[in-house]
Amino acid sequence: MKIRASIGSVIKLGKQPGRLAAEPTAIYLMTYHVAKCEANCAFCTQARSSSTTTERLSRITWPEFEIEKLFENYSDTNFKSLQRICVQAVNYRNVVSDVLKIVRYLKKVSKLPISLSIKPLPEKDIKTLLKEGVEKICFPVDAATEKLFNKVKGVEVNGPYDFEKHLTSLQTAVKIFGPYNVTTHLIIGLGESEKEAVDFMFKMKKKGVNVGLFAFTPLKGTNLQELKPPLKEAYRRLQLARCLIFNENTSINQFIFDEEGRIKNILIPVEKINRIIVSGIPFLTSGCPGCNRPYYNERVSGPIYNYPSIELVKKDIQKIKIELEGLIK
Ligand code: SF4
């Protein structure tokens, strides 16, 4: 069967020559569908009304392959740096049946855990996907508030999605997959305030849903092609907030915001916050474990929002400290 794979994954699997600016720790696949996605997310190159080719998702090209060709001679032992396979599913009628074929094939060739990012699904499909071997399931909410969601994914762009239904499906998935085996994506830079993004992350944490942060990337041919990417300083504060919320159990009352909803202070001992920043961990790509999405949101020349490796963060740690000025006393 046909499938798409991110160009980095294609190179990693040795199916095309090329130089990787950073090693991917996951293989990224996408369902193959001749037409555009049936949804119409304003930021997405796959959207129904985007004029971009179906070969693109975010900044990346996704060439098509027969799945058997892509994994010909593949064995986990020859690719020890890989930690996960992620399947991104476009929205179309028979997508679940295609995803099941992909998952069944992957289970035959690899023992790597499988993540699936897909439209919200009914309970029956979620159960089947778990039974067939999906390890983490992701329903991307993408926008921090219902109002923004309607504007970029829902009713205002004639999209099929509903904010509350996304949240309900996440909740159902947590019941079936278990807490933190369910992920959502949050795109920073769609117009939310930092406070709204922080509130969203707390809300997800409470539900047992993991959050992968993405920086909005303006892409030619999409509705939002003219919107600017987020300020790096704001993104850094939210990366730090994400780490504090999910890894350090920080409470909402420890975050202090200014009148415009920017994070002004975090009530944590200075030594602790400095230690966390210097560790570099908050600035790594976030989401499912082992997902590093190299250069998904950024050019190799920078600015880098999500770092694909700790070595790359460490090189930039002085710059990051400056970007976080004000939060480090
Ligand atoms: S966080 Fe990474 S591995 Fe998980 S669904 Fe999103 S892109 Fe895939």
TrEMBL record:
<dbReference type="InterPro" id="IPR034422">
    <property type="entry name" value="HydE/PylB-like"/>
</dbReference>
<dbReference type="InterPro" id="IPR007197">
    <property type="entry name" value="rSAM"/>
</dbReference>
<keyword id="KW-0411">Iron-sulfur</keyword>
<feature type="domain" description="Radical SAM core">
    <location>
        <begin position="21"/>
        <end position="253"/>
    </location>
</feature>
<dbReference type="InterPro" id="IPR013785">
    <property type="entry name" value="Aldolase_TIM"/>
</dbReference>
<protein>
    <submittedName>
        <fullName>Radical SAM protein</fullName>
    </submittedName>
</protein>
<dbReference type="Pfam" id="PF04055">
    <property type="entry name" value="Radical_SAM"/>
</dbReference>
<dbReference type="InterPro" id="IPR006638">
    <property type="entry name" value="Elp3/MiaA/NifB-like_rSAM"/>
</dbReference>
<dbReference type="InterPro" id="IPR058240">
    <property type="entry name" value="rSAM_sf"/>
</dbReference>
<keyword id="KW-0408">Iron</keyword>
<dbReference type="GO" id="GO:0046872">
    <property type="term" value="F:metal ion binding"/>
</dbReference>
<dbReference type="GO" id="GO:0016740">
    <property type="term" value="F:transferase activity"/>
</dbReference>
<keyword id="KW-0949">S-adenosyl-L-methionine</keyword>
<dbReference type="GO" id="GO:0051536">
    <property type="term" value="F:iron-sulfur cluster binding"/>
</dbReference>
<keyword id="KW-0479">Metal-binding</keyword>
